[in-house]
Structure formats: structure tokens, C-alpha cells
Design brief:
Chain lengths: 313, 470, 274
């Protein structure tokens, strides 16, 4: 397969995943922002939305103040922000168009129709309700695209590169939200607890659509270190760092078998996965959650570069 | 001027069209309209569009398709086939000569300056023998008809002729919409084209290639007007559709970047103009080319299809010498006639052209696609004056031809069935193992009443072209 | 005159490219006016240099270098004996009819103003080609000022002519455009010029050859208003600058490139070290 084709598939999936994640962050922030301030509803929520989207630096180059309007504008429709939902969907479609024949008709229609519809949204005049509807719509794009690829694509290198892009991006996103909120997840904060933190935790869970999942898995009230466990090590949770890297390993193994050769990305992925496999959440807290997440983000990015170097250029 | 009608000839319906004529009479207009819509839907769904240069809003447009086929008899086609093979062989012999010993110039067949000072005469090709000695592997020869036996070559396209996807998709649409017609007629198939093209490309792989050469189709990218055709052909051929950045050259060998590392490439079917092919050899600002590919070509490690520098052979001024070129290189009389042409570079001709401008068609020597052209009988006084000035300023730039009565074919238009002017572009493939010509070709039709301009960029449409077996 | 050429072209990269590909026309050939005693092109770091000859007879090298690191250094050393032939160039490789050098290129295509300039020179000079060419050089000297730093390598003859200034490349293009306009085959020469007070940037030079019936190719150095002599070392010939350019390159990957030439072309009698 042409390296460019693999690259476009990989990035198409990454951008769709990122658009979905942005929609989720903003959705959660809007929810927090609508709470009375004693429940945590203040503008610091928009700060952490920017941080989770790793868009703080870019934002403050053109803005002075983070509030609902400015951050929403920037993260949703920001034409000059390469990581806005608008830019991500555009980039996803451009990548899809470049490899149109490598996609199935259903996948192409999912992304192309989304793009067409995006052109019709009136981004300047959006009230809360239409914003909420818009964000729901964004989340449905990834469902539609993923579903289409799952149901219609041949299981060959095209599919694996697509899934690889999604898993790398998803691991990055999950880790970022943990990075921004890690101080809330420290066990020693538990006695302090209280309604404010409770809302913060449930917000994190909501961002990753895991509030119900939490209860199913732990059958207990929301506790911060369990939230961390769910998002980092839990093997049932599709967004956990472990699950993402299990998928990355699976796809890289498939590629290695298919192409008949293993390379640096397989070795790196295997290292990261076995680290996660042998970790316990207590140890992660013991050794410093912040350090762990920072290290993970770095490993994940390095793996992304290794994949690019090995297959995509 | 009365045009020859392909269906009605001099008056009576010509035998090859009899069954079609009966069918047309049987078919209610409403049904025809339904079929026309279905055809349009078919083309829209498969996405067979082209981009029109200079039109900002309509970047992806559909070329109008006419549902009434154009018919040639086997006897007519056999004659054309022989003529086409002769012409393309002569074009290749001509190119081999002008990039080699230049005997035709020494023999006075064609003026020195017309070849050597020609902007498309690529110095880099001089003394360079392309793999298997073939310069033009793919040619599209535009023919027009003025009578029962009157076929003329209007233009040779030896660079990157396009339109073959329309030939194939037109047939596909016709077979879906009118299966009964194909039961009544024995129509020679065209879908063999992809196989013929692949065989041609394989046959011209360089000696350094393995027995299973790697072939790629090089496109300028998705914003090119013919991108649909590029991706269509790559799919039909089962070869990679690559952009310049997918290829690279190392040690004079062309590689493609793949997920398993560099893969050696043997044959590049390029749909990029010479100028953009290699920024190290031609235009340095080209971002769609492959740096160093001309070095690999000169080293004999890759075949470029068509070879660079073929543009000198399909030039409209060189065209006027084609009869002499054919005689010189084949030793035979040309089977296909040239349209009589005045070379405005010659003083007597220029005078004649200026005196009779209102009756003539004037073309720019290096123009294509129907741009920069004057159709005398249809031109306003202002347009005539403008061209008179242009002709006086740069006579070398122009040729003139009589206004030909292009044949007409019944065409389904808004008001029903009416005659419209048509031409024909057969596609000729020239490989190391011989010449292959797909029966028929692409018939282009000027949809506007009375119009003689069939180019798709000027609102022309297409028709399926049938060669009827006896 | 004994000429010694030694210079280095240093490319430095912000981010190292994955690969570098260059087509070099840096190596002169001998002819009646010059004898090349020895000539070397070296690259650092290691790279492949494939030597070939282009149809115009220029010696070319194709340079392939993978992952050069943060810099690439191209060095050229050579020594030549030159002779004054009154500008007439004989003994060169000639494979084309002279009509090849009649065509205008994108860089030489004259506009109305430049065409008029050429027509006026021709009208005044009369029919003799040699006189026309000398008059043309003279007229360019009077009309277009030599000035460095105002034109670029992609500046066309017409642009430079209308701006009224340029460097040796532009003056040569203007000469070529005008000569071809008069129906005189003309071509671009890239090479070196050695002078007593050589400023570094002067050593890479360009001039023109026009074809005069009876004499053959005759050199004209419009920038210096002379016919090339002993101080001129002829390296490559082409239809225009692009065709004869010493280096044309491309990179894959990496960041921006900076280019610095450390150059020295001087006479053997006054060897100095940088």
C-alpha cells in the first residue's frame, strides 16, 4: 500500500476521534458551567477545557479571557485553530477525499455528508440549545464512521491503519483529561470530598461516556481512584489506556504478520502494553500519578512517530 | 453548407442505422426522457465529473451524455483502423528521427526551425532512445467526417490524451439502460481497453524490470480536471494511483513509498505535462512532479508513458506536414486525410487567410481544448478584427482551415431528437508488441444547435460509439 | 592564464532532511579557449555522485544523499589554463543545429518593450550579425544597470529590462532574448570570472554566446561589456539560466535550508588562502 494512503487513513481516523473528544469536553464544560458556582460552576471549567484540548497556548495568542463564549468559539468553529472541531472535520474529510477509493462508499458518505452539513451550520448564532444539538451531531459522526468501517471494510492493512489512528488518538485524549484532572483523583483528597469534587469526577466520566459503565464495573459510588483505575487500567473499558494500547498492539501485530516484518513500533508498543499490564492503580498513585501520565503521553507520542516513520512516510 | 448526417446520409436511412431508427420511432419521448435522467443519475453516482478551468462555482461538472449512439460499420472502422495505425507509426518514426538523426529535416520534409526551435522540442530527449524506441504509447486522434467516405484527421493528441473513461462509462450506461438494443445489434466491445492498456504498458517496461513490472499512474492530484479519469483507470488497471510525492528517485532508480518501504517502479503512466514532470529538469516550481525522474529515464531505468517531448508532434503547425511525414517514414500514401490547412507562417497563406477570414477556422498553434480559436462564419466583426490583428502580429502562431461541414448525428435534446455536429476520438495504443485500437472511441457532440465546437470545456457532450460487426 | 578555482557551498538545515537530491553542472570541459588540468567535486557527508553528460555536452553530477544531518558541504577544486581567443569559442561539444538556440524560454520571452528595444538595435546596426551583437551588448550596457540584490533567480528578461537593472544573469537573459528576437541563435553560459580584485560573489559568473555565421559561437559578457577572454572559465551551456544552472536541488522532509557560498576564483600567480 502507498505510504500516503496509509497516512491518510490513519489521520482521517485520528481527526474524527479528536473531533468527537472535543465535542465531549465542551459538552461536559457546558454542563459544569450551568451549575451554581458552589457546585463547581465557575469559569475555571473553561480553563480546563482548553487544557484538556491542549489548546491553551494557541488560545491565549489571540484571546485574553477564557469563558464559555470565547472557548466555544475557539474549540468548535475556530478556523485558525487547527484543533477545532471545524478544522478536524475538514482535515478528516480532506484525508478521506485523498484516499477516496480506499474507503467504502458508506464510510465516504458518512464523512462527506458530515462535511457538507458542517458548511450549513450557522456558527455565529448558536444558543446553548443549538450548541448542545450540534455537539450531539458531532458525536454521531464518529459513531457512523466507525460503524460503517466496522461493518463494511475489508480486514486488511487499510482497516488496521484506520483503527491504529483511532486508538492512538483516543489514548492521547484519555490521558490528557486525566492529566488536567489528576489532582482531583488523588486518594488522600477523598475525606475532603464533597459535592464539588463529586461533580468534577462525574464530569470526567461523562466526557468519556462512562458514568454508567463505572457503576456496572465497580458497583459502588464514584470514588476518585476508581475513576483513575477505570480510565487507565480497566480492560473492559474501551477508552482506558490499557484497552487503547491493547488495540494498538493487535493492529501492529496484524500489520507485522501481513507485511512479514516487525519494527520499532511493534517493540515500543509491546513495552508500553506490558508496563500497563503489570501496573496496579495503587502503585501508580504511589509513584506519582502526574509523572505516570506525563510519561504515558510521551510514550504514546513517541509511538505515534515510530508508526509514522515505519509505515507512513 | 449541408452537413452529412450519420443516420440519414444523402436522404434514406443508412443500413447500419435501420434498427436504431425503428427503435427511435417506437420509443415514446417520455421514455427517452426517463432514460436520459437515469443516465445522468448513473454518471452522478459514479462521480464521473470533470473540473472546468476558470469556473469558480461549478468545479465538479457532469459532461452531458446523449443516449443515442453513433454507429460505424465494420468496413468503415477497418479503414479507419488501418489509417490510425499508419499515422501513429509515422508519428513514432518522426519523433525517433527528430530526437535522433533528424533525417527528415535534412531531406526537407519539414523546416528545421519548426522542429528545433519548437518550445516542445525537449533538448533532454535528444539522443535518448526511449525503452523499445517508442515515444507515443497512447494517442487520441481526432477525426471528423464530411461525407460517406470523407474522414479527416483534425488533430493528433500525443501528449496525455484524455476521455477514455467516457468511452468506457458511456458504454456501461448504454448497456444498463438499453439492454434490448445490444440484443438487436452486434456491437464490438470496448471494455477490453483496460486489458489492452495494461498489456501495452507491460510491454514497454525497461530491460531492467522484472518479468512482472511495477506500473503506476501518476496524477497531478484530486484537483486536476481529469482526476476522475485517473482514479478510474488506476482501478481498472489494478495499479497504484500515485502523486509526485509518492515517488522518489535514488541512484537513478524510481521508487514508490509504501508501507513496506521503497518499491521499485518500472513504468510510469503519467498524466502530468512535461513542464511539471521533474522540477530538476523542467519547471523548478512544480510541486506535482518527481525530482530526478528525468535522470532515471535517461539512465534507462524507467519508462515514461508517453515519452517527454511528444508535444512537438501534435503541434498544429507540424500537423500540416503530416502527409509528407507519413510518406517519408512509411513509404505509403496517407490513408487518413488531413484537413487542408493554411500555414500563416507562409506569406501567401497569410494573405489568403486574411482575405477570407470570415469563411475560415483559425487556430492557435499551441492552443488546445477549443480555446484561442476563431470560427469565421460565426464570428462577429469585432472578433474578426481582433483575430486579424493577432494574425498580423504573430502569424507563426496560427493556422487556418476551411470551415468543415462536420457530420451530424441524431441527438436527444430538449425538444426531441435533432441533428447535432459530432467528431470522433479513437484511442490508439502502441506497445513493443504492436498497435492496439479499441473499436470506436469517444464521440463528442456539440449540444448547442449549429455549434461546431465539441470540446467538453465548451459545453460539448459525449455519445456511445458502436462499431457494428457484420 | 592559469586559473585556480576553489569554493565550497554550505547548506545548513534547521531540521535535517530525510534526503537531498541535486543536479550539478559544476564541471567544465576543455575547448580551444581553456584546458582543464584537473577538477574535483566533493561532498560531505558521504553521498553518491553519479556522473553523466547532458545532450548539450555539459558534464552533470546527480547527488543523492540520505539523512545528511544538519549540513551538506559541496566543494569544488580545479585548475585550468585559459587562452584568449577574441571571444570566439571553438572545440566545444556541439550536437544540435544552431536553430535549437532560437527558441525563447519562459525566462527569455520578451515583452513588447524588450522586443521594441531589440528591434531598434537591429535597425540601427544594419544587417551584419557581428555588428548587431556588439551593438546589442553596448545598448544593454547603456540601458540596464548592473546592480546586485534587486533581482532573483526567477526574474525574467522582460522584468529585469523594465526594472532597468540586474546582475549578470539578467543582463545575459536580456541579451539572449534580444538576439533570438533578431533571429540570431543565442545561449546562456555559466562559469567563473577571475579578476585581480575579486569580490567573492563575482567569481560565479554568467555570459552569453551568440552564433555568427562564418565565425561560429562568439561570447559576449554584457555585465563587463567585453568578449570573454583569459579570465573567463566556461562551465555549462544552456537555453537560459535554469538550463545551465550550477545546482538545482530538492529535499524531502526536514525544515528550511540556508545557503552560504565560500568562494575563491583567482589567478594562479596570486594564490591566497582564505
Amino acid at each position: 500500500m502507498l505510504a500516503r494512503t496509509a497516512d491518510s487513513l490513519y489521520w482521517c481516523a485520528r481527526y474524527i476521534e479528536r473531533a468527537d473528544f472535543l465535542a465531549r469536553i465542551i459538552d461536559a464544560s457546558l454542563r459544569m458551567g450551568s451549575l451554581p458556582s458552589s457546585y463547581g460552576g465557575d469559569e475555571s471549567e473553561w480553563e480546563s477545557a482548553l487544557a484538556s484540548a491542549s489548546a491553551r497556548v494557541a488560545f491565549y495568542q489571540t484571546h485574553d479571557h477564557a469563558d464559555e463564549r470565547t472557548v466555544c468559539d475557539f474549540l468548535v468553529f475556530g478556523r485558525n485553530n487547527p484543533s477545532s472541531i471545524w478544522s478536524c472535520l475538514n482535515a478528516a474529510r480532506a484525508n478521506a477525499r485523498a484516499v477516496r477509493t480506499a474507503l467504502t462508499l458508506e464510510m465516504w458518505e458518512a464523512i462527506n455528508e458530515a462535511w457538507n452539513e458542517l458548511q450549513r451550520y450557522d456558527c455565529d448564532n448558536m444558543d446553548r440549545e443549538s450548541m448542545a444539538r450540534f455537539l450531539e451531531w458531532v458525536k454521531r459522526i464518529s459513531l457512523l464512521f466507525d460503524g460503517a468501517s466496522y461493518r463494511t471494510m475489508l480486514r486488511n492493512d487499510s482497516y488496521w491503519f484506520l483503527r491504529l489512528g483511532m486508538a492512538i488518538e483516543r489514548a492521547d485524549n484519555t490521558a490528557r483529561i486525566l492529566d488536567v484532572k489528576y489532582h482531583l483523583l488523588l486518594p488522600e483528597r477523598e475525606p475532603v470530598g464533597g459535592t464539588l469534587d463529586y461533580f468534577q469526577w462525574t464530569t470526567i466520566l461523562r466526557v468519556v461516556s462512562a458514568l454508567t459503565a463505572f457503576h456496572w464495573v465497580y458497583r459502588t459510588s464514584v470514588k476518585p481512584w476508581l475513576v483513575a483505575d477505570l480510565l487507565i487500567l480497566n480492560r473492559q473499558m474501551p477508552r482506558s489506556l490499557f484497552s487503547c494500547h491493547a488495540e494498538i498492539m493487535e493492529r501492529l501485530d496484524q500489520l507485522a504478520d501481513f507485511y512479514g516484518r516487525r519494527g520499532p513500533s511493534q517493540r515500543m508498543a509491546s513495552n508500553t502494553l506490558s508496563k500497563l499490564e503489570s501496573s496496579r492503580i495503587e502503585d501508580l498513585f504511589q509513584n506519582g500519578m502526574h509523572e505516570f501520565i506525563t510519561g504515558f503521553l510521551r510514550d504514546n507520542a513517541t509511538l505515534g512517530s515510530a508508526i509514522a516513520e515505519q509505515y507512513l512516510v | 453548407m449541408v452537413a452529412f448526417d450519420e443516420m440519414h446520409g444523402a436522404g434514406e436511412v443508412r443500413p447500419a442505422y435501420a434498427a436504431l431508427q425503428a427503435w427511435l420511432e417506437r420509443s415514446p419521448p417520455a421514455l427517452m426522457e426517463t432514460r436520459r435522467r437515469q443516465a445522468e443519475l448513473f454518471f452522478r453516482r459514479i462521480g464521473i465529473t470533470f473540473n472546468v478551468y476558470g469556473e469558480a462555482d461549478a468545479t465538479e461538472r457532469l459532461i452531458p451524455f446523449d443516449i443515442i449512439p453513433r454507429i460505424l460499420t465494420r468496413a468503415e472502422w477497418t479503414g479507419l483502423e488501418r489509417g490510425l495505425a499508419q499515422r501513429v507509426s509515422a508519428l513514432n518514426a518522426f519523433l525517433a528521427d527528430i530526437y535522433g538523426p533528424q533525417e527528415c529535416i535534412r531531406a526537407g520534409v519539414i523546416p528545421d526551425a519548426l522542429v528545433n526551435a519548437h518550445p516542445n522540442y525537449q533538448l533532454l530527449m535528444a539522443g535518448l532512445k526511449p525503452p523499445h524506441g517508442i515515444h507515443v504509447h497512447l494517442a487520441g486522434i481526432d477525426l471528423v467526417r464530411t461525407g460517406e467516405d470523407g474522414f479527416y484527421v483534425l488533430e493528433d493528441n500525443c501528449r496525455t490524451p484524455s476521455g477514455v473513461s467516457y468511452m468506457l462509462e458511456d458504454r456501461e450506461a448504454m448497456m444498463r439502460l438499453f439492454p434490448e438494443l445490444f440484443v438487436q445489434h452486434r456491437v464490438a466491445p470496448v471494455e477490453t481497453y483496460a486489458d489492452s492498456l495494461l498489456a501495452t504498458l507491460r510491454s514497454v517496461a525497461p530491460d531492467t524490470a522484472s518479468r512482472d513490472p511495477t506500473i503506476v499512474l501518476l496524477t497531478p492530484g484530486q484537483f486536476n480536471s481529469a482526476y476522475y479519469e485517473h482514479s478510474f483507470l488506476a482501478d481498472k488497471l489494478g495499479v497504484e494511483l500515485v502523486e509526485g510525492s509518492d515517488l522518489f528517485v535514488e541512484d537513478d532508480i524510481v521508487f514508490m513509498r509504501t508501507t513496506v518501504g521503497p518499491q521499485r517502479v518500472d513504468v510510469v503512466y503519467r498524466r502530468i505535462d512535461d513542464d511539471f514532470l521533474d522540477p530538476l529538469a523542467f519547471r523548478p516550481d512544480s510541486v506535482v512532479g518527481v525530482p530526478g525522474i528525468m535522470g532515471a529515464y535517461a539512465a534507462g531505468n524507467v519508462t515514461l508513458v508517453n515519452a517527454p517531448g511528444t508535444g512537438v508532434a501534435d503541434d498544429k503547425a507540424v500537423y500540416t506536414y503530416m502527409p509528407e511525414i507519413i510518406r517519408f517514414f512509411t513509404g505509403d500514401e496517407p490513408i487518413l486525410k488531413n484537413v487542408p490547412t493554411w500555414r500563416c507562417r507562409e506569406e501567401d497563406s497569410l494573405k489568403y487567410v486574411l482575405d477570407n477570414l470570415a469563411d475560415l477556422v483559425v487556430k492557435e498553434v499551441n492552443g488546445s481544448g477549443g480555446y484561442g480559436m476563431l470560427v469565421g462564419p460565426k464570428a462577429s466583426k469585432a472578433e474578426l478584427d481582433l483575430f486579424r490583428a493577432k494574425l498580423r502580429a504573430q502569424p507563426d502562431n496560427f493556422i487556418a482551415q476551411p470551415t468543415l461541414a462536420l457530420s451530424t448525428s441524431p441527438t436527444f435534446v430538449g425538444e426531441g431528437v435533432a441533428p447535432r455536429h459530432i467528431d470522433l476520438r479513437p484511442f490508439v495504443l502502441c506497445g513493443a508488441d504492436g498497435i492496439r485500437i479499441t473499436p470506436g472511441g469517444l464521440t463528442r457532440v456539440a449540444i448547442k444547435e449549429g455549434s461546431l465546437v465539441v470540446n467538453s470545456s465548451q459545453g460539448g457532450g459525449t455519445k456511445d460509439t458502436w462499431v457494428l460487426e457484420d | 592564464m592559469r586559473l585556480r578555482i576553489a569554493y565550497a557551498t554550505v547548506y545548513t538545515y534547521e531540521q535535517p532532511p530525510r534526503s537531498v537530491l541535486q543536479r550539478l553542472k559544476l564541471t567544465p570541459r576543455s575547448h580551444d579557449g581553456q584546458h582543464i588540468a584537473h577538477w574535483r567535486v566533493d561532498v560531505e557527508p558521504d553521498a553518491r555522485l553519479l556522473r553523466a553528460e547532458d545532450p548539450l555536452g555539459n558534464i552533470t553530477h546527480t547527488l543523492y544523499c540520505n539523512r545528511p544531518g544538519s549540513s551538506l558541504i559541496l566543494t569544488v577544486h580545479g585548475e585550468a589554463e585559459t587562452f584568449d581567443c577574441n571571444g570566439v569559442v571553438r572545440g566545444t561539444v556541439e550536437r544540435f543545429p544552431t536553430s535549437v538556440f532560437l527558441r525563447q524560454t519562459a525566462l527569455t520571452q520578451p515583452d513588447a518593450a524588450l522586443a521594441q528595444f531589440a528591434d531598434e538595435v537591429a535597425a540601427k546596426a544594419g544587417a551584419d550579425t557581428l555588428t548587431r551583437m556588439h551593438d546589442l551588448m553596448d545598448a544593454i550596457g547603456k540601458t540596464v544597470a548592473f546592480e546586485a540584490g534587486v533581482t532573483k533567480s526567477e526574474t525574467t528578461a522582460a522584468q529585469a529590462f523594465n526594472a532597468g537593472h540586474g546582475v549578470c544573469q539578467d543582463l545575459s537573459h536580456i541579451f539572449i532574448a534580444s538576439a533570438r528576437r533578431m533571429g540570431v541563435p543565442a545561449r546562456y553560459i555559466s562559469g567563473h570570472l577571475a579578476r585581480e580584485e575579486t569580490r567573492l560573489e563575482d567569481a560565479a559568473h554568467a555570459w552569453v554566446e551568440a552564433h555568427v555565421d562564418g565565425l561560429g559561437w562568439v561570447g559576449f559578457d554584457a555585465a563587463n561589456q567585453i568578449c570573454p577572454g583569459e579570465a573567463h572559465l566556461r562551465v555549462a551551456v544552456g537555453l537560459d539560466y535554469l538550463d545551465a544552472a550550477p545546482v538545482r536541488g530538492s529535499r524531502y522532509g526536514g525544515g528550511a535550508e540556508k545557503l552560504e557560498v565560500r568562494l575563491r576564483a583567482d589567478q594562479g600567480s596570486s594564490q591566497r588562502q582564505d
